[in-house]
Design goal:
CATH architecture of chain A: 2-Layer Sandwich
CATH superfamily of chain A: Bira Bifunctional Protein, Domain 2
Mean pLDDT of chain A: 94
Structural class of chain B: mainly beta
Distance between the termini of chain B: 53 Å
Largest sheet of chain A: 9 strands, mixed
Helix content of chain B: under 10%
Structural class of chain A: alpha+beta
Strand order of the largest sheet of chain B: 1-6-2-3-4-5
Largest interface: A-B, 25 and 15 residues
Low-confidence stretches of chain B: none
Helix content of chain A: 25-40%
Oligomer: heterodimer
Radius of gyration of chain A: 18 Å
Number of strands of chain B: 16
CATH topology of chain A: BirA Bifunctional Protein, domain 2
Strand content of chain A: 15-25%
CATH architecture of the largest domain in chain B: Roll
Radius of gyration of chain B: 21 Å
Order of helices and strands of chain A: HEEEEHEEHEHEEEEHHEHHH
CATH topology of the largest domain in chain B: SH3 type barrels
Chain lengths: 281, 189
């Protein structure tokens, strides 16, 4: 039984208002791309929801990069995103994602931006802006581990220590996804607030050939666990070479509202909770 | 072959075996790093010692189910070392080391009905009703006009348990106590 919590929902609206005001002040244009797409994901462990021959996007990343290639400059989007097999106190099959791209910037500028944006969202609900510490991934966990062992140690040992607001940067290269790599480090960072993984940022990789190789690697990982390959968004791959140098970040709005209001479960901050798979079938 | 639970079966109250010891799940959380596979983080309470263990499981990992039986039994007496209970249907009597049920023992009064938990056929603990009602045998007199919220004073119940009660509660009154937290719940009229 889900009881609507008017306090959390009002605070959610104030936070969204402050976020849109922040983007407007910082010269960003709001875009809205389709949720129904040819390819909903590229990463091996994301499961898109299939709708006929199309999929619901797990993030608006591919579409927004096509918009960037068309030369629109700084853009942002607040979109419902969908991920199959994800449900829990911090996960819902449908959730709200904020994604923005800053043209001409790298990860350091984006770290400053996300801190400033979260500060504005906090002030909108009369909370002090969180002060973030910045930690290199290499200072938290050994890099030379098999991916499954790396993630187990991350979840079991590292993540529980990230209770203070933290920006974690510089990931092993096999976790580059769509980010560029510098030497043996993926130029990516994640933001932790309230002990939750709140946002994920890339200095974007813009070479189509490199991305094709990553897609092949991801499909090989999927095949090893009996999963079919993801469909390929050819429109994205055709456009990516024309993308300007930029950095992009995706931030979970529901988790931001949880962290700023003290809500304990994602369903409390969603206007109506995402129905579970059982209640649909 | 013992029955096994998978991570998708996890829920609060699940009883499992780790290294031969019975644990009850008090917390579980689905965790999925953005770039990784899914895990379940849990908190498990040792069903005899009460110590808490934190464990992370990989999705699909299996854990052994604990063979736990519950029987409704009547509390008989306490000989200083053991608490004795009787199954009211079979008249079977069992004894539990008093030290291991210290918190529950303070609420046990003669002939109170409780659930006794058996692990692999051995009695290990008792489960009290969530709320019990009892009379306050002793507490300081109430302070008239003191309505400070949250202010409390110690009270001793007829069964011997010590609980904190609000200042307006008087000696001789009957109250309801939450046995899981040892907290005052309400007055009983």
């Amino acid at each position: 039984m889900h009881l609507l919590n008017p306090r959390f929902l009002r605070q959610r609206a104030h936070i969204l208002e402050a976020i849109r005001a922040w983007f407007s002040q910082h010269g960003y244009l709001e875009v809205h791309t389709p949720a129904l797409v040819p390819a909903g994901a590229m990463e091996p462990h994301l499961q898109p929801i299939q709708v006929g021959s199309l999929q619901l996007h797990t993030s608006p990343e591919f579409a927004m990069k096509r918009v960037l290639a068309a030369g629109l400059g700084r853009i942002y989007q607040i979109a419902s995103c969908f991920r199959e097999e994800e449900s829990g106190t911090h996960h819902a099959r449908e959730f709200t994602m904020l994604e923005w791209y800053r043209v001409g910037a790298g990860t350091p500028e984006l770290m400053d931006e996300v801190e400033s944006l979260i500060g504005a969202a906090a002030r909108a609900v009369d909370r002090p802006p969180p002060l973030f510490q910045r930690r290199a991934v290499s200072s938290l966990i050994r890099a030379d581990q098999r991916p499954e062992d790396w993630f187990f140690e991350w979840v079991d040992q590292v993540e529980p220590t990230l209770t203070a607001p933290t920006i974690v940067w510089g990931y092993p290269p096999w976790q580059a996804a769509l980010s560029r790599t510098i030497g043996t480090v993926a130029d990516r960072f994640e933001v932790y607030l309230g002990g939750m993984e709140l946002a994920n940022a890339f200095a974007e990789e813009t070479a189509a050939d490199t991305l094709r190789e990553r897609i092949q690697d991801a499909d090989a990982t999927r095949a090893a666990s009996g999963r079919p390959p993801h469909p390929v968004d050819t429109g994205f791959l055709d456009a990516v070479d024309r993308m300007p140098r930029c950095a992009g970040i995706a931030l979970g709005i529901d988790r931001l509202v949880m962290a700023l209001t003290g809500a304990q479960t994602i369903s409390e901050v969603q206007v109506l909770p995402s129905p579970s798979a059982e209640s649909i079938t | 072959m013992a029955f096994k639970y998978e991570t998708s079966d996890f829920r609060n109250g699940l009883k499992i075996v780790i290294d031969g010891n019975p644990y009850i799940m008090t917390y579980f959380q689905f965790v999925k790093p953005g770039k990784g596979t899914a895990f379940t983080r849990t908190k498990l309470k040792h069903m005899i010692s009460g110590s808490v263990l934190e464990r992370t499981y990989r999705t699909g990992e299996k854990v052994e189910a604990a063979d736990i039986e519950e029987h409704e039994m009547q509390f008989l007496y306490d000989d200083g070392e053991f608490h004795h209970f009787m199954n009211t249907e079979t008249y079977e009597q069992v004894a539990i080391v008093s030290e291991s049920i210290k918190n529950e023992a303070q609420y046990l009064t003669e002939s109170l009905s409780v659930e006794v938990l058996f692990f692999n056929g051995r009695p290990i603990s008792v489960q009290l009703p969530n709320f019990v009602e009892d009379t306050i045998e002793y507490c300081e007199p109430g302070v008239r006009g003191n309505t400070a919220t949250g202010a409390t004073k110690p009270a001793t119940l007829a069964c011997g348990a010590q609980v904190q009660v609000p200042l307006f509660v008087e000696q001789g009154e009957k109250i309801r106590v939450d046995t899981r937290t040892n907290a005052y719940a309400s007055r009983v009229n």
